[in-house]
């Protein structure tokens, strides 16, 4: 169930659950492909923001060495594709005993401070927490392009109709999830490239077993510097971008044997 109107939590609330016991260290996944020197800056910002371990999912072309962060950072080579990297990261987290995992992209588009709120909401009981750029409380640094807004509106409507989830951002690359969700997803994730978050959201939503919510994340769509670097056409042209997400929705519904006609037409 989505909860909107959420405010940021204090540092004490972020670090310590309600029972007073220090929270187990989280694993932060950082997928990265051809990000040059940006990855080191992202990793450093993550370590400044919270007490966590970091796994850099290196698909190649990154000027990064984990030796600069000897205690808490690991870098592993993964196949190209965001979905493949995320699945590898989830499997790694399960194999190494992590109870919670969160994701932030290696290109600097996400604010690591938001990870604190994601983890706090997850440890308060949510199975999946998304960082939403379209949340009513999200700070708009630079408005998204019209096609990105339309894409999110279209697919969040589909997610609401077929999964019953009233989310504001269904394609965010910033999220946190608990171990039960990881165990459920590890054998089921099939998306190899873009659309990974949409697949995760639909798989968990259609199962009916998991609590899903979101917190505000700044909408930063400007510039090539520290604020953001959303490439103008990183997924190809706009039609191709829409087709990628439509294929994800169709595939998940087909795997679940869901008849979309009564859900999308006869309502």
TrEMBL record:
Q: Which domain of life is it from?
A: Bacteria
What is one GO cellular-component annotation here?
A: membrane
Keyword Glycosyltransferase assigned: yes
The Glycosyltransferase 2-like domain sits at: 79-183
* Alphabetical list of InterPro entries matching this protein: DPM1-like, Glyco_trans_2-like, Nucleotide-diphossugar_trans
What GO terms in the biological process aspect are recorded for it? glycolipid biosynthetic process
Pfam families noted in UniProt: Glycos_transf_2
- Record's keyword terms, sorted: Glycosyltransferase, Transferase
Q: Which SUPFAM superfamilies match?
A: Nucleotide-diphospho-sugar transferases (SSF53448)
Region Disordered: what ranges? 1-21
Skewed-composition ranges (Polar residues): 1-10
Q: Which PANTHER family match?
A: DOLICHOL-PHOSPHATE MANNOSYLTRANSFERASE SUBUNIT 1 (PTHR43398:SF1)
Q: Which family does it belong to?
A: Belongs to the glycosyltransferase 2 family.
Protein name (database record): Glycosyltransferase 2-like domain-containing protein
Q: What is the originating organism of this protein?
A: Streptomyces viridochromogenes
